[in-house]
Amino acid sequence: MEYVIGLIGLVVGGGVGFYFDRMRMGAAYKDRDQIVEQAKRDADNIRRDEELKQREELLKRREELEGSLKKNRDEIHQRDRELDRRESQLKERDSEYNKREKLVEAQQMKLTSKTKAVETKEKELDRMITDEQQQLFRISGLNFEEARAMLMERLEKTLKDETGTLVIKYENELKQRQDELSREILGMAIQRVASAQTSEMTVSTVDIPSDEMKGRIIGREGRNIRAFEKIAGVDVIVDDTPGVVVVSAFDKVRREVARQSLVKLIEDGRIHPTRIEEIVNETQKEMDAFIRKTGQEAMHEAHVIGLHEKTIDLMGRLYFRTSYSQNVLRHSIEVSHIAGLLAEQLGLDGVLARRCGFLHDIGKAADHEMEGGHPAVGAELLKRYGEREEVVHAAAGHHDDIRPEFIYTVLVAAADAASASRPGARRENLERYVKRLEELEAVACGFPGVEQAYAVQAGREIRVIVNSDQINDREAAKMCREMAQQIEQTLTYPGEVKVVVMRETRVVEFAK
User: Fold this and answer.
1) Greater confidence, 391 or 248?
2) Is the pTM of this model over 0.85?
3) What fold is seen in the domain 302-421?
4) From the centroid of its chain, how far is CA 250?
């Protein structure tokens, strides 16, 4: 019995276990199906997402390609429009060139026809002149050569008589007025040059901010002022005058270097022997550069070129030299201008005269370093630096120390005396001089047939160019005499004016 019950229990337990196993297996299958289904759905979602990304990338690439394609199309259209515009311009230019070519051809045809008409008229005129000449020859009983010889003889006799009369007239006037003419020429040259004058000085003053600075300039036991005087080569006077220190020296260049150095030391505030030496050396270099620049500027102002470097430096040093209340450098420039003007008035070389005048006092820049007066010193320096013999002689003889051998020495001496005694107002007289030249050219241009007129040689000559088609040789000779007479009657001028009338015939033809 117990066995049966146990067996039944076993069967029931096995059935219940089987039932629970079936239940578990059903739940597992159900979970499996859900997982598979969920995996399928996830796979579908991933696939759709990937397809969407690929489609977006394709759309993006398509848009980029379409944008690039549109840009290329726009560039092509732009180029097409530019080509069309250029083609239109070329067509317009071609059309304009064709019009011009037709116009030139028409004008050339007109010119050819006019040329033929003129040639025909010239031939007719020549024939008429020949007929009239033949009639005149028959009436007068002379042939062509006899009539021409008679006319030329009369004209030559008239010109000789008038020329002889004019020569005698001017010779007499020149003898009577030679002193007056020389004074007029010299006076006009002087009045055209300006003069700058300064006072002769041997001391320079330096302002100081306070009297306490005087003690610093003197230094302990006077070491600063002794070092400054030794290095700069000047005398420094420190007295009871408030706010001023005096620098004294006969050499103006050295005195100016010392003055500038002292000003720099006062501004710097560091005053001791080492600093004094540095400042003086620095100022000396600046002064050398200033002297070179001043000499070059003076050379250009005097219109003198090709000077030696040492000569330029010596001329620059004259800026700090005065003589008889006159700055020597300004005096040299003034003498250069006056000598050049005198030379041009006399028909000489104005360039050489200006060079002689500019360099005549160069000895004053070194007369304290070399023995002898400044004329001899200047001549020696100019000879050393390769100047011409006329320039050397002008420097040596402008004070009549030697007998003049060149006319330029006399001109420089006269210009030197004129500059020292009578500086003039250059600007006012320069305007008057230019006005006189303009009036001279205006008189010449007032005659019929005159094309151009030029006043040359500082107004001593007027050159007139006439139209060769309107004025022949005989009329040119007559015009020249009338022009000279009108200049004498209407203008005031020093000396005399030479009138030159020129006519030129040009024949031009083209080989085609």
Assistant:
1) 391
2) no
3) Hypothetical protein af1432 (1.10.3210)
4) 40
